[in-house]
């Protein structure tokens, strides 16, 4: 019987967030050097959810001290660590190394300096609504569904809660404020799910600015106003 969501979050919720940061990244943490994946988790979490770092350390250390057996894993009562490229015999030691890095970061205030996102996970953690937007409306199937690149934007605004549209607009402004070079913006858009090229004559940053203009002109439809009595 699978674990209920509340119990799962209490035991493994933040552990899962840490492990998710390793998707597509090497689990090459060393006692004196955290991996790029762990640095991305620390960098984002320190600046957005610093209060969960102690929870992450506790959950990871507890899990490492009490690794689940095959039976309990099959019953869904434990968190199954995804394949991170390490042999099963090395997972426990690796988890202890991660827990030690988290503990040191909290106790000694070792905060990675702010920077642009460095991993796929960090791009999506920092710009979640852009990821939803580009991944959902600008996949490689987009040219078969819409006549031009403004059409999916209008479809998005017509079918999305105005608060999410406002959140997307804010994230786009933040992304543009990073002041990246054009190849870096192209990479960011690909990391965030865009599978088509910006339309001519726009550069990647120019098209992002064009998006903010379209979204900035969006007006929510609240239905007919009150009639005069």
Per-chain topology:
Layout: H1 5-20, H2 36-48, H3 53-65, H4 70-74, H5 88-108, H6 120-126, H7 128-137, H8 142-145, H9 151-159, H10 162-177, H11 182-191, H12 204-216
3D structure, described in words:
This protein has 229 residues and is mainly α. It is built from twelve helices and no strands. It has helices spanning 5-20, 36-48, 53-65, 70-74, 88-108, 120-126, 128-137, 142-145, 151-159, 162-177, 182-191, 204-216. It is elongated, with a radius of gyration of 21 Å. The relative contact order is 0.11. The model has no long low-confidence stretch (mean pLDDT 88).
Search tags:
single chain; 229 residues; mainly alpha; 12 helices; 60% helix
Mean pLDDT: 88
Order of helices and strands: HHHHHHHHHHHH
Shape: elongated
The percent range for helix content is: 55-70%
Main pleated sheet: none
Q: How many separate domains?
A: 2
Structural class: mainly alpha
Our Rg estimate from Cα atoms comes to: 21 Å
Instruction: Please report the distance between the alpha carbons of the first and last residues.
Output: 60 Å
Number of strands: 0
Number of helices: 12
């Amino acid at each position: 019987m699978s674990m209920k969501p509340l119990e799962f979050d209490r035991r493994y919720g933040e552990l899962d967030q840490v492990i998710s940061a390793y998707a597509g990244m090497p689990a090459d943490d060393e006692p004196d050097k955290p991996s790029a994946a762990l640095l991305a988790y620390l960098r984002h979490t320190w600046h957005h959810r610093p209060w969960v770092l102690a929870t992450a350390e506790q959950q990871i250390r507890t899990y490492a001290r009490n690794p689940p057996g095959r039976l309990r894993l099959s019953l869904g009562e434990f968190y199954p660590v995804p394949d991170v490229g390490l042999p099963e015999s090395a997972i426990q030691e690796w988890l202890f190394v991660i827990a030690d890095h988290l503990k040191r970061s909290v106790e000694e205030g070792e905060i990675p300096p702010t920077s642009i996102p460095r991993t796929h996970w960090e791009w999506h953690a920092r710009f979640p609504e852009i990821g939803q937007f580009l991944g959902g409306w600008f996949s490689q199937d987009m040219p078969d569904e819409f006549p031009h690149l403004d059409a999916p934007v209008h479809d998005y605004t017509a079918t999305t809660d105005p608060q999410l549209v406002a959140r997307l607009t804010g994230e786009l402004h933040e992304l543009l404020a990073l002041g990246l070079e054009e190849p870096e913006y192209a990479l960011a858009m690909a990391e965030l799910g865009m599978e088509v090229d910006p339309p001519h004559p726009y550069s990647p940053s120019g098209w992002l600015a064009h998006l903010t203009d379209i979204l900035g002109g969006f007006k929510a439809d609240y239905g007919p106003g009150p009639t005069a009595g």
